[in-house]
Design a protein that fits this description.
Mean pLDDT: 97
Number of helices: 1
Distance between the termini: 12 Å
Number of strands: 23
Shape: globular
Order of helices and strands: EHEEEEEEEEEEEEEEEEEEEEEE
Length: about 350
C-alpha cells in the first residue's frame, strides 16, 4: 500500500514553517492506485499549535502532532519547530527541533521533552572579506520532503544562488522507525529525531534536558524517545552495509596501517559487474540494546560518482508483500552539513536517498 506523499518546493527561510504546515495539512489521503487493489490511507498529521511573528505575519513556531501506527498500536507525539531567525537576524538559516510526548491539556504541559536539536541549512558564520554573505531570512530555500503518518523525512537546502560556499544540504528525520518483523510491538518508545547542522554539537546537556551520560543531542547521533528499558532520549547510531571507509577515516592498524579504501573518483558506482548502484537500509542500533529497526523509506548510498538530486530506480520483485508496484524511485541527496548522523557511522562518505515515487 502506497502510504506517502512526496513534495518538492522552493520557499523562503521565513516561510519554511508556513510551507511545512500548508503542504502537510493539504494531504487528505495519500496517493494510491485503485487499479492495483489499493485503498486510500488518510493523513493523520495535524497542527497542534502555531505562533505567528507579528512583524512578518509568518509562522515562527510550529507544533505538529503525529500519530504513528505499527500493527494495531498507535502512538501520538508532537514535533516543535522553532525558527531562530525571527528573534536573531544572524540565525537566518536554522530551526530548533524538539520531540515532545504526553501532552496534558489540564496541566498544559508534556510528560516528556527531548533535548532541543539544532537544524541548519547554511553556515551562518561564513564571512566574505570579513562580512556575512547576502543570505538572510528572506532568501530562498529548497525543500524536499517525504510525508508518512509514522514520520517525516526531509532535506532543506539553502539557495546556492545567494553564495556557493555557505549553503548546505541538510537532512532531518523525525518519527517512528520501521521495526523488524520480530519487534512489531516497538511502538511506545519508537520516536526518533536527527538533524543536520553546521555549528558544533553540544557536549553537555542544556538545563532541564540532562538524561544521563548518553543523552543524545540529535546531530551526530540519533535521538530515540526510549530504550528497551525505558531510558529517555539516548544516543543511537546508524548501521548499514558498506565497504571500508575512505583512507584517513578508517581504523589504523599497528601493523598494516590505514585500513581505509580509496575509491577511483569516476568508478565504483555503478558496479562494472551489475551496472547498478549498491543501496543499503539504514539500520538503527543502540550500544546495549542492539539493532532496533531502520529508517523508513530512506536508504544509504556511497557518495562516489553520483550527483546530488540523481534518481535511483529499484526494481521490486513480483508478489513482494505489501508492494503492488513494480519500481521504487529514490531521490539522492549529497547531504553535507558538518554535523550529521553519518559522522558516527562505519562510513562518513555515505549519502541519503529518500523515496520519491512508486511505479506500477
Amino acid at each position: 500500500m502506497a502510504n506517502f506523499a512526496y513534495i518538492e518546493k522552493i520557499t523562503t527561510s521565513q516561510e519554511l514553517l508556513d510551507t511545512l504546515k500548508t503542504e502537510i495539512t493539504a494531504i487528505t489521503n495519500y496517493p494510491h492506485n485503485a487499479t492495483a487493489g489499493e485503498t486510500p490511507t488518510a493523513n493523520t498529521w495535524v497542527v497542534a499549535k502555531e505562533v505567528v511573528d507579528t512583524a512578518s505575519g509568518k509562522i515562527k513556531e510550529l507544533t505538529l502532532e503525529g500519530t504513528s501506527k505499527i500493527g494495531a498500536t498507535t502512538k501520538k507525539f508532537h514535533v516543535v519547530f522553532t525558527h531562530q531567525g525571527f528573534t536573531t537576524a544572524s540565525e537566518h538559516s536554522s530551526l530548533t527541533v524538539q520531540v515532545k510526548e504526553g501532552w496534558n491539556e489540564t496541566k498544559n504541559s508534556y510528560a516528556n521533552e527531548g533535548h532541543p536539536i539544532n537544524f541548519e541549512w547554511a553556515n551562518e558564520a561564513f564571512l566574505v572579506g570579513g562580512k556575512p554573505t547576502d543570505r538572510t531570512i528572506t532568501k530562498p530555500v529548497y525543500l524536499y520532503m517525504n510525508v508518512m503518518n509514522n514520520r517525516l523525512a526531509l532535506v532543506v537546502v539553502g539557495d546556492p544562488a545567494v553564495h556557493f560556499d555557505d549553503y548546505r544540504k541538510s537532512f532531518l528525520y523525525v518519527g517512528a522507525l520501521k521495526p523488524f518483523q520480530y519487534n512489531q510491538d516497538d511502538v511506545s518508545g519508537n520516536i526518533m529525531v536527527t538533524a543536520g547542522a553546521v555549528k558544533v554539537e553540544p557536549t553537555t546537556p542544556m538545563a532541564g534536558f540532562d538524561f544521563g551520560q548518553y543523552t543524545s543531542f540529535g546531530n551526530n547521533t540519533l535521538q530515540m524517545f526510549q530504550t528497551k528499558s525505558g531510558i529517555k532520549f539516548q544516543k543511537h547510531y546508524p548501521a548499514f552495509i558498506t565497504q571500508a571507509p575512505t583512507t584517513g577515516k578508517a581504523f589504523v592498524d599497528t601493523q598494516i596501517g590505514d585500513t581505509g579504501l580509496l575509491l577511483e573518483p569516476q568508478g565504483f558506482n555503478a558496479s562494472s559487474w551489475t551496472r547498478k548502484y549498491h543501496l543499503s537500509p539504514i539500520y538503527v542500533v543502540h550500544a546495549y540494546d542492539g539493532y532496533r529497526g531502520q529508517l523508513d523509506s530512506c536508504i544509504a548510498v556511497s557518495k562516489n560518482n553520483i550527483l546530488h538530486l540523481d534518481e535511483l530506480i529499484v526494481d521490486i520483485p513480483e508478489k513482494t508483500e505489501g508492494k503492488a508496484w513494480k519500481q521504487e524511485v529514490y531521490r539522492y541527496f549529497d547531504h553535507n552539513t558538518e554535523q550529521n548522523f553519518m559522522n558516527r557511522s562505519a562510513n562518513v562518505k555515505m549519502g541519503i536517498a529518500i523515496l520519491k515515487e512508486v511505479r506500477y
